[in-house]
Write a structure and sequence with these properties.
The structure is a homotetramer.
Chain A: H1 12-34, H2 37-44, H3 48-55, H4 58-80, H5 87-104, H6 109-118, H7 123-147, H8 154-177, H9 183-202
The structure holds a DNA duplex.
DNA sequence: GATGAATGAGTTTTCATTCAT
DNA sequence: TATGAATGAAAACTCATTCAT
């Protein structure tokens, strides 16, 4: 009697990942408010008190999801955009990685993100993430500038970065809503807008 | 006995506006889910059943808010960007009007919009609004192109428009979160990014 | 100016009938509880306060419906079963009239009746109606008996009458649920059950 | 510290029965619509969410009551009417058991039944129960017939059975309304009406 | 006589969260 | 560690009923 049933008494870390998997799924499907802890627990194949014991309240659980997915995304981007490339090449690779990630996790990241934006409670977490992204983008731009011997006010850099991030988010959203769309192509379009600007485009210019 | 109590037995149209005012406020403060019909009614100085009688369920009420505020915004923009101006001037005026509106209704539009994006139920309403905006922007661009004797694939136009709208929304969001920021300045920055593109900016170019 | 709009200011009695028509319809469709005064008023083409002014509360309104329809039914039966006919002929005609009525008002009588039976509030009204029916039936039987020179305890008469009425109601219910069924045939069947049983009893037969 | 508090943390099965007991009582007292889930929970000595968790919505709860009580009644009848007895004896025992049951549960079965009849939502459940009863009764009659070497059209059997059931229900109702009445006596009376009528029919007699 | 405006009071239902075992 | 049992608190929605005009 009592050979251990292969799926019980897992180490804490593993259990937590299972729960997060379940939670991401449920939150994505029904949104933050529509999701119920019951369903999360059920999908994780575990009892509710366990979820509370491991990952805390619903709010904390959501933050944990956001954090894990966000980190994964950042890593994907960072891994793609090597710092020693020229600015436009880095931007392009970053964008491609980003849209690739969003495309591959259509039901994950974009939805969580949208949810987070709607709830005051997550403002801080989001602000942190966005700051990190903006920093990265602004860093790219700054790097490029310095390479050309120029200098630009920090605020301006930040605003450009913000706008780029915003435009990108928008297209990512659009991508999440259009299952048939191609991430690669979306990245290209974004690159064109971002890099050249509307005026250039109107004149027939194309990046690459 | 005598002078009008001023706030009882009002005609339907008036009450509806009062309710919408209250609803916009409450939804903005607590978000769609955090808002309770009780509070909406209370803030409107009326009983709950009236809200249901006039504006329907919570969902419908929210849509009504979205609709009213969205329409107001569109009108503000349309009123500013006269169709006979050159493309960049129109874009500029439109942006200025937009950021002006958002700045003036800091607790209104941007928050409702964020809320709407988080809930599947409002996807349709949103899609409609966005389509109208994108059409307007794409129209501007198209107009400018034809003036120069060029033609551009419709899809490309749409994507450019989408990205612009996204970037703008992002800055609007940022504006809503930064009470001290200046709408006019934000509009200018956005214009620079949009019109010139990052590459131009990096080279020191500035619109105007 | 001011030729009277043909459908306003009707005499009270007419208005009341219109309301009752509407009410019977609504109660039949949705049941007593499912029905709303709003719908009654709307269907009667009149405002709610009028309904209250003319026919009182929802409960009173329902009683009024019950009363009118019940009276109509009783009259239909009484009109059919002339007192100078032999007992079986009278019973037969009565049954035929009853099932005919129920069949013709499939959505009226039977449904109201079922509703009334479920609500304590209508017990009195119902008891009154049933008493009248039972009296009629018992009267028929008694008449037949005396014609044969017999006499039977009143209680027994009442019970037989009760059982007959119950069986009849049951078949009426069944008829209301089966739109394709033929009232005439149902009456015949009921007659067979009722008459052969009753006849034996009347002749003094007893089981055991 | 020590002896069992006896009424806390009970196993599900037990709690469910307690809830059903409470529900039957409350539904019987106030009717389906008059009953509130609050009262059911209170009377069961438990909080409302438990009721929902175990027995579902109000409608489902009512169906559960109906089902349990109906099954008990059927069992009482089936247990009384052994299949190897002569037809009249079986009918008699069945009737006696039925009236006995109704008499013993004056506030249970008959009231639930009346309620169920008033609500469209329960039509299916009721139809099922009635079908089972009618089948049993028709089976009895059929058995008796075959014993006498006769055969009767199925439809006729069904109608006779229906009428019997209806008459019986009616007397049961009457019994539920007359607390002083004697179930045994009521059964006897019903038997007289039913048997003398049915016996004639079984012998091939027809009115007209 | 007639009605649009208004509401008090109540209902069902859901959920995050926690004991007791 | 793990869970079935349990709940407090609230929220959306409905309806019979009545003023004030």
């Amino acid at each position: 009697m009592s050979s251990t049933p292969a799926f019980k008494r897992l180490p804490r870390a593993v259990r937590e990942q299972q729960m997060l998997d379940a939670a991401v799924r449920v939150f994505s499907r029904h949104g933050y408010h529509g999701a119920s802890m019951d369903e999360v627990a059920e999908r994780a194949g575990i009892s509710k008190p366990m979820v509370y014991a491991y990952l805390g309240t619903k709010e904390e659980l959501f933050v944990a999801c956001l954090h894990r997915e966000g980190t994964r995304m950042m890593e994907a981007i960072a891994g793609a955009a090597a710092p020693d490339l020229p600015a436009d090449e880095r931007l392009w690779r970053g964008l491609r990685a980003f849209f690739g990630f969003v495309g591959a996790h259509r039901d994950g990241w974009a939805v969580l993100y949208r949810q987070a934006r709607a709830e005051r409670a997550f403002a801080d977490e989001l602000a942190g993430m966005r700051t990190r992204i903006v920093e990265v983008v602004a860093g790219m731009l700054d790097h490029a500038l310095r390479a050309e011997g120029r200098e630009v006010a920090e605020t301006d850099l930040e605003v450009v970065a913000y706008a780029l991030v915003g435009a990108t988010e928008s297209l990512a959203d659009w991508l999440a809503d259009h299952p048939e769309a191609d991430p690669e192509k979306t990245a290209t379009r974004m690159m064109n807008v971002a890099w050249l600007g509307a005026a250039q485009l109107l004149r027939g210019a194309r990046w690459r």
